[in-house]
Amino acid sequence: CLTGGSGSDVALASKPHGGAAAVSDRALSDRPSEALEPDLPEPTVALPPDVVPVPFLLLARFHLKCEIDLKQVAFGIRNAEYNPRKHGSITIRLFDPRTTALVRQSGVVTITGKVSEEALKSSAKKVARLVQRCGYQEQIRFADYAVTSMLCSADLRFPVRLDALATRWRRNALYEPEFFSNCVFRCRKPRVVYLVTAGGKVTISGLRKMEDVREALRRVYSVFYEFQR
User: Where is this region: Disordered (predicted)?
Assistant: First the structure.
């Protein structure tokens, strides 16, 4: 089941959602890697088993290994959207699971969705099969699939004093409550950005594998724990 859609979902997938995007971008530009603390201290508080990062938005890329006639594919996939005056790609949105893909003439496909890693890869293969049925039975290959970005969330189970956190970690934290109510906390190793709310909710971006996300949360948990209220 397919419908047309805009490419904005894919374009935004690599950034925190909502108002966090602009603040996170500013954090990245205002804090060069060399200005950050070399690394976080070794954790003094163990990460509780109920504090678990959960992926909620994934972005992946793969290659079809051949040039694509976008007009031909647009006519061959019902309700696929193609407007060459606006985008040099076809937008395909699947409902089950709910994902959005951009197919480019070069054969590169970008796909995003609020789904699991397994569901995103399954959707990517569905997109490849749909394009294959549009006159590319022999040429199409599903190759070079890789998750390029993910957003994960976690609940620390305690509120955080953001002002104190930003004061102590002023080289890593960006907190300007008059413009944005949350704190952007950036680390150099691993290279990751945390968006922390006063209520203890954390959004983690900048990593590509769940094991890296879990390790990043384990390392930063002690830092946030020190400023609980």
Answer: 1-44
| Structural domains of the chain sorted by starting position, each given as residue range(s) with its CATH number in brackets | 58-150 (3.30.310.10), 156-226 (3.30.310.10)
In the chain, the amino acid numbered 168 is R
Give residues with Cβ within 8 angstroms of 11, minimum separation 6. none
81 vs 79: CA distance, rounded Å:
6
Mean pLDDT computed over 31-43: 64
Give Cα 113 to chain centroid, integer Å.
9
pLDDT over 80 at 57, yes or no: yes
Confidence class of residue 36 from pLDDT cuts 50, 70 and 90? low
φ, ψ of residue 227 in degrees (nearest 5): -115, 25
CB 58 within 8 A of CB 120: yes
Distance CA 142, CA 129 (A): 9
205 touches 149 (CB < 8 A): yes
Place of tokens 């995103």: 120
**What is each CA distance from 197 to 154, 169, 179, 190, 201, in whole angstroms?**
11, 16, 14, 21, 5
184 strand-pairing partners: 174, 195
Scan for tokens 């959207």, then name that residue. 81
pTM of the model: 0.73
Q: Beta partners for 70?
A: none
